[in-house]
């Protein structure tokens, strides 16, 4: 994972959950476009952060990781998206569910929430393979430590550190039942990550009684591998 700050000559305030499209164009005119969620809060003016996972063999993410350097100019379009967005005015309680880089738009929501006065009860369930794969680990820990209304719950699906007391499996009905319980029957839910995780978590939530109209999803990639 690597984070980038993009300074925007014509900045527009975004809504947490929105993304930008980045376009790369080669000298021969060949061009590719990919979407990247905004990680930063809208309270930061004039620039945004994105966080990009390196997908081996990909066209855009390896370029950003291996070739792009500070000061490069990149063509972007945004902010885009009007469905997978949360602003403090929407209230809560909030259940945020992330798999891997799916944490990025949810981080914008959490940062926005921290920057405003309204703090609806919020729980983040974050699935990562190993402890090293947890993005924004320190910041999430600090935010939760100073805010009783924010809980961060990790599940580590592939390897766990010695003495790990948290979840160590893929998200399932029992896990969602436990994590959702303090938020009542119908929290507002945002789920983001690889398609199998998003579909699995959304279906499980409906099975345990969360109203489907309270669940919003965003799929990042073609696989969960
Ligand atoms: C709305 C939206 C927001 C997004 N936000 C982010 C973000 O914040 N951070 C981020 O890292 N990505 C994000 N993505 C994914 C991103 O747009 C690209 O799909 C990703 O970076 C791969 O692009 P690439 O050009 O490197 O690989 P490609 O050239 O598109 O793909 C190369 C190979 O990798 C496979 N592949 C592509 N994507 C994935 C994946 N996610 N997991 C596993 N295999 C894959 C492809 O099937 C192909 O075989 C977002 C996608 C959407 C739709």
Instruction: Report the portion of residues in β strands.
Output: 25-35%
Q: What is the typical, i.e. mean, pLDDT?
A: 95
The low-confidence parts are: none
**General shape:** globular
Radius of gyration: 18 Å
Lateral arrangement of strands in the main beta sheet = 8-7-6-9-10
- What oligomerization state is this entry in? single chain
Number of helices: 5
Bound molecules: flavin-adenine dinucleotide
Gap from first CA to last CA: 16 Å
Could you give a short account of the major beta sheet? Answer: 5 strands, parallel
Structural class: alpha/beta
Task: Output the helix-strand order.
Answer: EEEEHEEHEHEHEHE
The percent range for helix content is 10-25%
Strand count: 10
Task: Kindly summarize this structure in a few lines.
The chain has 225 residues and is an alpha/beta fold. It is built from 5 helices and 10 strands; from the N terminus they run ββββαββαβαβαβαβ. It has a 5-stranded parallel beta sheet, sandwiched between helices.
Q: What would you note in describing this structure?
A:
The protein is of the alpha/beta class and 225 residues long. Helix content is 22%, strand content 28%. The chain has helices spanning 61-66, 103-115, 137-145, 173-180, 195-207, and strands at residues 2-7, 19-25, 31-37, 47-52, 75-80, 94-99, 122-128, 150-156, 188-193, 215-219. The strands form three sheets. A five-stranded parallel β-sheet has the order 8-7-6-9-10, sandwiched between helices. The protein has a three-stranded antiparallel β-sheet with strand order 3-2-5, with no helix packed on it. A two-stranded antiparallel sheet has the order 1-4. Helix 3 links the parallel strand 7 (122-128) and strand 8 (150-156). The longest helix is centred in the middle third of the chain and has 13 residues, at 103-115. The protein starts with a strand and ends in a 6-residue tail after the last strand. The relative contact order is 0.16. The mean pLDDT is 95. The structure holds flavin-adenine dinucleotide (FAD).
